[in-house]
Design goal:
Blueprint (H helix, E strand, L loop, with lengths): L8 E6 L4 E6 L4 E7 L14 E6 L3 H14 L3 E3 L5 E2 L2 E3 L9 H11 L6 E6 L2 E7 L4 E9 L1 H10 L20 H7 L1
Parallel strand pairs: 1-4, 4-5, 7-10
Antiparallel strand pairs: 1-2, 2-3, 6-7, 8-9, 9-10
Amino acid sequence: MSEVHSNKWLYIDVGNSRTKVAASDGTVVRVLGCIDTPEELIPWLEGIEAVLVASVGHDDWLSGLQRLMERLVIPLFHAEVQESFGSIKNYYDNPGQMGVDRWLAVIGAAQLTDTAFVVLDFGTAINVEFVDSQHHYLGGWITPGISLMYKALFGGTSKVRGNISEQAGLAPGTTTQKAVDAG
């Protein structure tokens, strides 16, 4: 892989349910929003010197991104899971099967502490990652995210209802509705 020293990067996170985009000018990272297709990146590419993508999404989306970057002659780099990075040693049985989103969350959190830590990531799935005090990544848990859990709870019953709300609190629910919303 060739090395690019750039202050103007576009970062793309191709996730399970959406693709998020951010840009850096060397000092500040700005969240730009979500997109559905690579072509939607075009307004944000002016002045961008390189693109870094982390993907657990579909290969056809990545192929479209690759074609766009080749056409615009912008270097495209893919973040990948490794057996180690910096202070982190990956004890996953097969690091190539680990989602790069989970690996990057662990690497980012490791920059904040020298002690053992746990990463909680709430998205389409809820990921929990465990790292010991020697910065050995020990593995994690993956469970359905809030939307998937709501679909599972309400798909087979007419008596349990819920309302996905960003205002739901953490207090124990005193009705089924409140218990589902808080859960």
